[in-house]
Amino acid sequence: MNILGYRFKPKIWTIVLMMFFVAVFSSLGRWQMSRADEKNIKHEQMQLYAKQPPINLPPVLIKLEDFKYRDIEVRGEFLNNKTIFLDNKTYQGRAGYHVITPFKIANSSLSVPVNRGWVDVGLNRAILPEIKAIDGEMTLTGIVISPEIRALTLSDEFVNGQVWDKFDLQRYMVETELAMQPILVLQKNNTHDGLLRDWDKPDSGASKNIGYAIQWFSLAIASLIVFIVLNVKRSNRKSEIESS
């Protein structure tokens, strides 16, 4: 095909290769857009839940999906002697721990793990901060999140006494010998224990997926442009006339 003195005659294998890359990159772009939609829906759900009053956490086993991101309240007491510290938690550039203590649900055999807040690591990491024990039955309020807290670890051995590199609910139940609800609660009410509970209020995170989608769609377009550029050549009129 000759257009304005330029010849476009790509080989079959280059057409197939171009179509493959365009299809793959476009598919990845659409997938990232769908992930962005999912995150927006989840964020809207979280905002809706934030406007609703807390719901009671029942004394029977629940499903995470039914309570995730909901504000809850539960009656019971802290089991202070089973507290652990999650390492590598920073606050305003300062190193510290998140303090996890199980909360025994009243009139139930179940407990619920509670992230009570942040505490400074102190001057000597060999000495753990003293956390005020909260004794007696009380009503706890907090936000339900997934108990699977992702963290970078250098090995499978992430437990060093009371200090853990990451939270693992199954491991925690084994260590404490407690049956627990399959959730983690971010404590909201003030128990005057000196812990900081300045929980992040993240956005949906959809902008990151949209950015990735734009990159994939750009690669699809770039693949098409490269294909055209490499296969368009100026026609050699002299050689065409001589050959004719």
Explain the overall architecture.
There is one protein chain. The protein is α/β, with parallel strands linked by helices and 244 residues long. It folds into two domains: 2-44 and 206-236; 55-187. The chain is built from five helices and 13 strands. The longest helix is centred in the first third of the chain and has 39 residues, at 12-50. The radius of gyration is 29 Å and the shape is elongated. Mean pLDDT is 87; it is low at 151-155 and 239-244.
Secondary-structure blueprint:
Layout: E1 2-3, E2 6-8, H1 12-50, E3 55-56, H2 64-67, E4 71-78, E5 84-91, E6 94-105, E7 110-120, E8 138-145, E9 159-160, E10 163-164, H3 169-176, E11 179-180, E12 184-187, H4 206-231, E13 232-234, H5 237-243
Parallel strand pairs: 3-4, 5-10, 7-11, 7-12
Antiparallel strand pairs: 1-2, 2-13, 4-6, 4-8, 5-6, 6-7, 8-12, 9-10
